[in-house]
Design a protein that fits this description.
The chain is of the alpha+beta class. The chain contains 17 helices and 45 strands. It has a nine-stranded antiparallel beta sheet. Strand 32 (640-644) and strand 33 (647-654) form a beta hairpin.
Length: 838
């Protein structure tokens, strides 16, 4: 693109403050920082006429509740066009690990709040400091009315430079947003010199002479300084620099330059901070449990209403969502928090999980009452399925504790069964063959080595083939910080122990492969067989890690692996390594409401960008194509994966030093020359960073992920390469069946039926209680037709995610037909018949 640069250059100056909801300071301190920053911004707004942008809708609620006078001043500044509300999401979220529905709720709750309080709609997604972005994010953004996207973090890449600052970002369904990667930090210093540097950088990349220049102190708040505000005022009189808003910048780029912009049709992978998918297992586990619990709670509430019952939770559900969405802030979900802040957030989540558990039990009791007949003396078992597809699972009787195999539980429905001996019967077989323990069900034969404790082989009877190319291993790597690796802008990776993966920084990673100290058959019954192996890792005569790995097989078409860990390790990274027979050189990884296909970083075909993806995120599942089918791996709270040839690796445990505010402050005062790539090559640099490592480890060091930890892994196979197969395996791992005793005859009932094999759906009561919301997602590259059936459905409406009805869908004799485009998210509203009419 060639333009008349001299005449066309225009810079928009916008003050901001990226305030971390949580990082190195307590919630109360963050609230104080918000108040002081907002007062400062308003003062300079009045004195110098600057504009100011603020994201994180939670901050506005804090101010409304605790400082109503300040809130009113902000309202007046917004109405005058001097204060810009950006982001629209409840917090600046992590964009790789949350569930898709959670990202939608970020904007539903955030945008509804801001519309109600200020009468404004937000069209800019504002994530300057988030650690990478899934390819599914554009469709989620467009579904919630977001047209524009801003970040700064991609400039931290450590292998290749991201090629554009202004571009069109296309998602997996074809949705597009206008994206802006700032050519400078989100807290650049406001001076003519820095503005000219930003213009130079922008012109170097694209020769597109338009810059949105963000300035103001961030992280711990502050906003614009008096000198910066004055500089902005004086520069704005030069004609080619203006004080304005982000929306002005985006709308002008859209109107003048849209046809000249490049298209980025991929994820926005950050080549840095690859350890954030693994650090802080307890925190990540609680976040995932609270997400799944809330989704199930919503579906159970919908079931209760469909069955004629009612429960009034008031604002309780929204408040629970706000708590959970707050924990999706990028430094919280990443686990890159100081010690005290970590404990504060864990305590919050424990309360949330307990509250959700209480509410689910309460609703389940109400459903059991409705389905019980006082005249019926027999007590049978009610099994509720909150997922949209049929399930077969092992359940525990709530009164006797007996394990039972319940088959063919309908999707979005329930089954009432007699808990007799037939339900305890299975097809399991157990034998020992030399050094091998052999467990068999109707689908798999599993071989476990009694000497090593390793899962040696899986034979799939349906595919008639072996699935593994070797035993499944536990590997322990040294993960010491390395400060010679830097971003392309000179940021040392070693300063970010909790954020980074260091095992590849010194060539081929070295590891210790663990062998079991004890192997035993721990459970044998008609419903389930399990084998337990204990692995230990010691260093300098000190036992640092103990793993108890339990392999479980039942009549479900999957192999469960439960791992409990006791950690006293420092600077270790533990991976579960699964060698897959005849695997392709790529894999498909789960993403929020979708998936990402990635080539192996070690493939001979890999580009430089792909080689940098040696640790990648997933929401919790991976599908590995192989000859004749695929292997599926699902995890309940582990999000970091890598694929090196035939080996799929799950990062189970990372034990870095907790981030420290003292260390952060020390880094801020380093001279600029000490932060450049050239300094990393000097002798002085090596000496400096050895001292740095010692300081960090012995004066500041408290290590994360210590004590008792747990995770669950599931292995399964399919004769297809369809992402939906892996999605189902993962959601069944996360989502329990709900069990109660009822006075009722055996019965099978499906409340809503979705006739399509690639569709996932979530059912909830509408926010205005006038119907039910069904969010459906097509996990396919092809357009799909879906037939929706249900005795309770009176009307079906196409709607937006804010539950505004758009068009009525006409029924046919067989149900309601809905068409979904490739990878599309669609929201439907179901209006039900009265309970008395069913």
């Amino acid at each position: 693109m060639v333009l008349s640069l001299k005449e066309d250059i225009l810079v928009t100056l916008l003050a901001n403050s990226h305030i971390d909801v949580a990082w190195l300071w307590s919630r109360e301190e963050t609230k104080r920082v918000c108040r002081e920053t907002f007062e400062n911004a308003l003062f300079h707004m009045e004195k110098y006429g600057i504009t100011y942008a603020q994201s994180n809708m939670i901050f506005y609620e804090w101010i409304e509740k605790e400082h109503p006078d300040l809130f009113e001043k902000i309202r007046r500044a917004i109405s005058k066009g001097k204060w810009e509300v950006v982001g629209g999401s409840w917090v600046e979220f992590d964009a790789n690990m949350p569930m898709g529905e959670s990202l939608i709720r970020q904007f539903i709750i955030g945008k509804r709040y801001i519309r109600e309080k200020f009468g404004v709609d937000v069209e800019i997604c504002w994530l300057p400091d988030t650690f990478g972005f899934s390819r599914t994010l554009p469709k989620i953004l467009r579904s919630v009315g977001i047209k524009y996207f801003l970040t700064s973090k991609l400039s931290w890449n450590d292998t290749t430079e991201f090629p554009y600052n202004i571009f069109i970002w296309r998602g997996d369904d074809g949705s597009e947003v206008l994206a802006y990667l700032t050519p400078h930090s989100y807290e650049a210093y406001m001076s003519k010199r820095e503005v000219l540097k930003a213009i130079k950088e922008q012109i170097r990349k694209q020769k597109l002479p338009r810059v949105l220049f963000l300035y103001g102190r961030g992280d711990h708040g502050g906003g614009p300084t008096p000198e910066e505000a004055k500089n902005a005022y004086e520069l704005s009189r030069e004609g080619w620099i203006e004080i304005g808003k982000a929306i002005d910048f985006f709308e002008e780029v859209e109107s003048k330059y849209l046809n000249y912009l490049p298209i980025w049709d991929d994820e926005l992978y950050l080549q840095f901070h690859r350890g954030v998918f693994t650090t802080q297992l307890v925190l990540k586990d609680l976040i995932r449990r609270s997400e799944v619990g809330l989704l199930d709670l919503e579906t159970l509430i919908a079931y209760l209403r469909i069955l004629g019952g009612h429960i009034d939770l008031g604002d309780e559900l929204v408040n629970l969502w706000k708590e959970v969405l707050t924990k999706h802030f990028h430094d919280v979900f990443a686990g890159t928090l100081a010690v005290d802040v970590t404990l504060e957030n864990i305590a919050d989540l424990i309360r949330v999980v307990a509250k959700i558990r209480y509410l689910k039990a309460r609703i389940l009791r109400e459903i059991a009452k409705i389905l019980s007949d006082e005249k019926q003396a027999n007590k049978n078992l009610l099994v509720l399925n909150t997922l949209p597809w049929e399930r077969t699972a092992i359940v525990k009787h709530p009164e006797t504790g007996e394990l039972l195999v319940v088959r063919n539980i309908p999707g979005f429905g329930y089954k009432i069964v007699k808990p007799d001996k037939k339900l305890a019967e299975g097809t399991l077989k157990l034998r020992q063959n030399g050094r091998l323990i052999v467990i068999e069900n109707k689908r798999y034969v599993v071989f476990i080595d009694k000497l090593s404790g390793l899962l040696a082989q899986i034979y799939d009877k349906k595919l008639q083939r072996k699935l593994l190319a070797g035993p499944v291993e536990l590997r322990v790597y040294d993960d010491d910080p390395n400060l010679s690796r830097r971003s392309v802008t000179g940021v040392p990776a070693g300063l970010f122990d909790a954020w980074e993966i260091f095992i590849y920084d010194r060539g081929r990673p070295r590891y210790t492969s663990l062998k079991a100290s004890k192997v035993e058959i721990s459970e044998v019954n008609k419903a389930r067989i399990s084998v337990r192996a204990i692995f230990e890792y010691s260093s300098f005569l000190r036992k640092q890690l103990v793993f108890v790995v339990t392999y479980l097989l039942s009549d479900e078409d999957k192999i469960n692996v439960e791992i409990t860990m006791r950690s006293r390790a420092k600077h270790k990274l533990v991976k579960l390594v699964i060698p897959i027979a005849d695997s392709e050189d790529y894999a498909i990884y789960g993403a929020p409401y979708g998936y990402v296909r990635r080539r192996d970083f070690s493939s001979q075909k890999a580009t430089e960008e792909e080689k940098a993806k040696y640790e990648v995120p997933s929401v919790g599942w991976v599908l590995v194509p192989m000859k004749g089918g695929s292997l599926i791996v699902a995890a309940d709270n582990r999000f970091g994966f890598s694929k090196d040839g035939r080996e799929l690796q799950i990062s189970l445990l990372k034990t870095p030093i907790y981030p420290s505010e003292l260390y952060y402050r020390a880094y801020l005062v380093l001279p600029e020359w000490a932060k450049t790539p050239s300094f990393a090559e000097t002798f002085l640099s090596r000496v400096f960073y050895k001292l740095n490592k010692a300081l960090w480890k012995y004066l500041l060091g408290r290590f994360a992920d210590q004590g008792n930890l747990r995770c669950r892994i599931v292995l399964a196979s399919s004769d297809k390469w369809e992402p939906i197969e892996a999605l189902k395996t993962w959601r069944e791992l996360l989502t329990p069946l709900y069990i109660a005793t009822v006075s009722s005859e055996p019965k099978v009932y499906q409340l809503i039926r979705l006739d399509a094999d690639t569709i996932h759906g979530h059912l909830k009561l509408s926010d205005d209680n006038s119907g039910f919301v069904l969010r459906i997602v097509n996990y396919s590259e092809e357009e799909k037709e879906l037939m929706i059936r249900g005795d309770m459905i009176k009307e079906l409406w196409d709607a937006d995610v804010f539950e505004n009805r758009r068009s009525k869908i006409s029924p046919s004799k067989t149900g309601f037909k809905v068409t979904l485009g490739r990878n599309e998210i669609k929201t439907l509203i179901l209006v039900s018949k009265d309970a008395s009419q069913k």
